[in-house]
Amino acid sequence: MSDKKSFETGDLVTAGYKTGRYIGEIVDVKTPKVVIKILAVIKHPTQGDLHNPKQLDVPLFHQRKALSQFEKALVPVSATNHYDEEVPDYHQSLKEAVETQANELKHEGGRWAEASLIELEKLKDEYFTS
Questions:
Q1: From the DSSP assignment, how many helices (H) and strands (E) are in the chain?
Q2: CA distance linking residue 130 with residue 119, whole number of Å
Q3: Residue 81: phi, psi to the nearest 5?
Q4: DSSP letter at 4?
């Protein structure tokens, strides 16, 4: 029984949502899922089609945005872990996550990586203009 994860409202967690990873606060428990309020970005979502990862020749190459600060997401308990460190600033964490992903794509190379970099550059303009 101790292998089961248990969460309460107010717990800080890390959670995977689609292809991104976030730090958030649990605002509701709806087992087998939890509702988290986004506080920071750990990993920016991967660009492109979720069902055909790293493929460029798909019907629609999606631009994938990170969840916004304080946006709420319904996440499976299985994709959630307790978090007990200091929560970084949302905007700084978003910037670092975008830069990390851009650097990984530059090293990967190929058509999919190039298309993903183009989308990330568009997102940078949107995220960081204000």
A1: 2, 5
A2: 19
A3: -135, 150
A4: S
Instruction: Give yes or no for a cis peptide into 32 (omega within 30° of 0).
Output: yes
Which structural domain, as residue segments, surrounds residue 20? 12-127
Q: What CATH number should be reported for the domain holding residue 94?
A: 2.30.30.430
Residue type at 45 in one-letter notation: P
Low-confidence ranges of the chain (pLDDT < 70): 1-3, 130
Q: What's the distance, CA 25 to chain centroid?
A: 14
Closest-CA residue to 22 (of 32, 11, 8, 12): 12
Query: Per residue in 66-78, pLDDT tens?
Result: 999 999 999 999 9
Tokens 């976030």 -> residue: 22
